[in-house]
Amino acid sequence: MNSAYTVPAVALVVVATVLVGAFGLRVSRTTSDFYVASRTVGPRLNAAAISGEYLSAASFLGIAGLVLVQGPDMLWYPVGYTAGYLVLLLFVAAPLRRSGAYTLPDFAEARLASQGVRRLAGAFVVGVGWLYLLPQLQGAGLTLAVLTGAPDALGGVVVAAVVVATVAAGGMRSITFVQAFQYWLKLTALLVPALFLVLAWQGDGAPRHAFDEPAAFREQRTVRVDGTLDLRLERPLTVTVSGTVDGRTHHDRQTTLAVGTHHLERGTRLTFAPGTAVPEAARGGTGGMSTSLTAGREERPLYATYGLIVATFLGTMGLPHVVVRFYTSPHGVAARRTTVAVLGLIGGFYLLPPLYGALGRLYAPELTITGNADAAVLLLPDRMIGGLGGDLLGALVAGGAFAAFLSTASGLTMAVAGVLTQDVLPSRGPLPARGVRHFRLGTVLAMAVPLAASVLVGGLPVADAVGLAFAVSASSFCPLLVLGIWWRRLTPPGAAAGMLTGGGAALVAVAVTMAGVPGSGPLHALLAWPALWSVPLGFLTMVLVSLATPGRVPAGTAAVLARFHLPEQLRAEVQA
Amino acid sequence: MSGFLAGLCVAVLPLLAAGFWLGRRTARTPHLGGLGTPVEHATFQTLHTASLAAPPLRAGMTEETARRSARRLRSLLGTDALCLTDDTQVLAWDGVGAHHRGEIMDRLTGPLDTGRGEAFRLTCEIPDCPVRWAVVAPLTVDDRVHGALVACAPRESAVLVRAAAEVARFVSVQLELAELDRSRTRLIEAEIKALRAQISPHFIFNSLAVIASFVRTDPERARELLLEFADFTRYSFRRHGDFTTLADELHAIEHYLALVRARFGDRLAVTLQIAPEVLPVTLPFLCLQPLVENAVKHGLEGKTGTCRIRITAQDAGAEALVVIEDDGAGMDPELLRRILAGEDSPSGGIGLSNVDDRLRQVYGDDHGLVIETAPGAGMKIIVRLPKYQPGVHSSGRLGQLAD
After folding, report:
1. Residue A250 bridge partners (DSSP)
2. How far from A197 is each of A16, A397, A469, B147, B358, CA to CA, in Å?
3. Do the beta carbons of residue B322 and residue B312 sit within 8 Å?
4. For labelling, which of A83, A248, A472, B87 has a CA lying 20 to 30 Å from the CA of A339?
């Protein structure tokens, strides 16, 4: 990759983001502009903003990487990410807007009139936000490492610094415009190179490749092993090796590796001849970004797929940065229209990453060994087109990737910092200074924890880490929102118990998976894809505990639910 | 290994957060061990239990508050069972023998009528039921019986009768305080109703005079102004709901400024800078228009040149930040402080202190007006509006206006 183009592109994205954020306000100087300046955000602009904030590194890089490594099964990821909005549209969007709540803790308080449940919801918002920030920072680190060869953690630190600086300094004042801008930037950054890539593929004779046969090298390709690696061979492999394999040092010698598992030391180079099938990396090798959860998935594909579907379908509604955006809609009907537009925008975007994944399997198959599959989107323009054109397209993609990290990370940071400021940090001290100082402290705290964790945890595939955040959100907030909006017998103890049991179970499962405790087997599958059992658990606990505490139904429940469900216009007429 | 550590971190952090929260809650219980003699220790314990029982009752007697305080009151009296009733039903029963609810309610009619305490034997078929005697102590607020505290014990005891009467008096005082709180709230509500939506009569006269001056020379303009006037007064005189949205309030300000501009022409330059995210924010009805009116008045006062007014509304996380600035005559900060404290009320000041009172009433004391000013240096008014506040819902018609 040529960093002469990519570094300025990334810098340009950062600068543009900050500028649009700081100066994107509508200004009017005459009365005739007054109406324009005070016009509410339309559904289409808001939808672009929601999409911009939602399409994270997992979408931009992760899906292509997963499709590259594991084939079309992984299309469930984009389907799930999109379908989450369908559930949101049907059950939550309009009532949530009418509740007047700005954050999920606000919703808990509005519905259940309980400070305890509010605090608990706040704790889960922080938990989900941190889980979701983690892969963003990791993705940024990977991107910068691939683009410039910088150390892995640097990209995460850069994104963290930019986000904390702009958010804490009160930048991002016109956040809707920033996020809408980021959506169109991300779409352009994938769409334009994709057109060129498809043309290049056509010019190459439109080679086809079935996904169920192993990927093969189309030309001579040298692969360098960055960490140590275990190769599992099912048939003998003839390859030129320079480095250490199974403890024996080779110098540019053609060798044939026998069937079985071979251990490659760090820094070993393998040169494959054209037509060689790509060998499979065994689980356990370090640096396997997109491989860590594959064992569980391969053993129980059906269970893993359903776990993924449940988590992504039901988890979207509980993402803190998504909920906050709905407040911008002027009323419930607009919130619903916005969600429909979001479905269109996101659906359109998600057509592109699988394309990169499929092309990556043809043109960059060695990524399945080195484990940098998440980098496929970044590498393809250079690999397939090359020259100046490839460099420029590569720079465009890199800029888009950074837009993905920045937008999602800043949205999440603001949401988490808001909760930390309001509900966690002690509310003592001199009044006027408190708000700003606390918010800055909250911002730093919101970013410091996932940054530290991203340095510690290392290789969890971006899309999988996001999947885990979705699982926690689906098990805690989905029951709270759905039952809170549609079931009048929900009680504060029930809501608290349900969130603690469902969300807590998912959180523990996630932590255990990240720690890598059960290496394989049915327990690993259960813990790596917790949503399938933790979501029903959350719902069941919430319902049973609520039924067991009938005396604790909040007094104003009927009025609150009427406000959630009555259209605003009707309400105004009733009162007038 | 590092993966394991990090996983551990992820698992431990929520626990830490929960622990922190619990710690903050339990830290309020003072640890009295080792302080004073056993008698003093017992006194501290009793006072502490009593202080824990008081807060729920301050919200008045409901099933919820009675349930929470009954537990504390029972440990204060040290009986097997304690129940709190209002004048028709048992609100909370703490301890054993809840099957006596009905019987106790039947026997209560006498004490509730006379307002005097009573002790009586309970009939029970269960042989080892520890609840044999009930001591009734009425709860009175303003000489009216509101309910009763019933303490149940295995045998008759003069000490319990005396203790129950004292505890009942303590509870009665809390309920009286609750009643006081309620009447204070009602008073403030009445005050708000009286204060809200005051558009100054001067403004109406001046507007009509301006419109009249255009009727012959520019009838079209006069018609437009009349419509603006109608829109503005319709908004200010509306009677439903105490809250509106920032978008609606800005529309009212727009109509207001159109009328003022007709009077002062080019002497008034208004700049508006609004972040569209904050337009759906709910705020007390007519709480920004008086601030703009104030800015217009101060900006034009004692000045022949142009008055510049700047209105900005920014998104600040969970709050919206509204700033209204003028470059007019300004004000002595000390005088302003007195006006806001209600010690002084010159003409025009009533608008500011009214808005300040209402904001503090709705959002709490740290959301009052923040004003930066000095004589000759203009005035900058900062309003912080939380995006969400329990109980604050607009009944505005933002939807129709936006379409």
Report:
1. A243
2. 27, 12, 33, 81, 62
3. yes
4. A472
| B314-353 residues touching A, CB cutoff 8 A | 314-319
User: Looking at chain A, which residue has its C-alpha nearest residue B13?
Assistant: A127
Same domain, B140 and B104: yes
Q: What is the DSSP string of B213-264?
A: HHHHH-HHHHHHHHHHHHHHHHHHH--S-SEEEHHHHHHHHHHHHHHHHHHH
Q: What is the distance in angstroms between the Cα of A171 and the nearest Cα belonging to chain B?
A: 9
How near does any CA of chain B get to the CA of A294, in Å?
A: 17
**Weakest-pLDDT range from A313-322, A422-431, B204-213, B329-338:** A422-431
Q: Residue for token digits 């978008």?
A: B247
Token pair, residue B42, equals 């017992």
Backbone angles phi, psi at B239, to 5 degrees: -115, -5
CB spacing of B314 vs A173 below 8 angstroms: yes
**CATH code (residue B53):** 3.30.450.40
Percent of chain A past pLDDT 90, that is, above it, reads: 23
Query: Which of A26-35, A403-412, B102-111 is the least confident region?
Result: A26-35
Q: Are A102 and B388 an interchain contact pair (Cβ–Cβ within 8 Å)?
A: yes
Chain A with chain B: Cβ pairs closer than 8 A = 194
Q: Are residues B269 and B150 in the same domain?
A: no
C-alpha to C-alpha distance for A517 and B5, rounded to whole angstroms: 11
Total of domains in chain B: 2
Confirm or reject contact between B33 and chain A (CB < 8 A).
no
| pLDDT tens for each residue of A473-490 | 999 999 999 999 999 999
Under CATH, which architecture does the A3-20+43-205+316-459 domain have?
A: Up-down Bundle (1.20)
Between chains, do B318 and A103 touch, taking CB under 8 Å as contact? yes
CB within 8 Å: B241 and A575: yes
Q: How far is B40 from chain A (nearest CA, A)?
A: 33
A159-211 confidence digits (pLDDT tens):
888 888 877 766 555 678 888 888 999 999 999 999 999 998 888 877 776 65
Write down the pTM of the prediction. 0.76
Biggest CA pair distance of chain A: 88
Q: What pLDDT shows up at residue A421?
A: 81
For residue B242, give the chain A residue with the closest CA: A575
Q: Do B9 and A572 touch (CB under 8 A)?
A: no
For residue B244, the chain A residues in CB contact (below 8 A) are: none
Residue corresponding to tokens 């690999």 = A383
Domain-embedded: residue B17 = no
Max mean pLDDT range (A353-362, B109-118, B343-352):
A353-362
| ipTM of the prediction | 0.79
Same domain, B137 and B55: yes
Q: Note whether residue B67 is domain-resident.
A: yes
Q: How far, CA to CA in Å, does A47 sit from each of A16, A43, B274?
A: 20, 6, 20
> What is the residue range of B255's domain?
196-402
> In a 10 Å sphere around its CB, with 0-12 CB exposed, 13-18 middle and 19+ buried, how is residue A420 labelled?
buried
Interface of B with A in 223-242 (CB under 8 A): 240-241
Tokens representing B373 are 């000013």
Instruction: Choose among A354, A321, A355: nearest CA to A136.
Output: A321
Same domain, B117 and B212: no
Interface with B, mutate which of A29, A35, A38 (most B CBs under 10 A): A38
B21 part of contact set with chain A, CB < 8 Å: yes
Nearest to B21 among A119, A517, A576 (CB): A119
Mean pLDDT over A453-459 rounds to 72
Q: Assess B13–A contact: CB distance below 8 Å, yes or no.
A: yes
For tokens 């549209």, the residue is A89
Closest CB to B273: pick one of A25, A517, A569: A25
- CA B68 to chain CA centroid, Å, is 22
Chain B neighbors of A551, CB-CB under 8 A:
63, 67
Mean pLDDT (chain A) is 81
Residue B292 and residue B158 share a domain: no
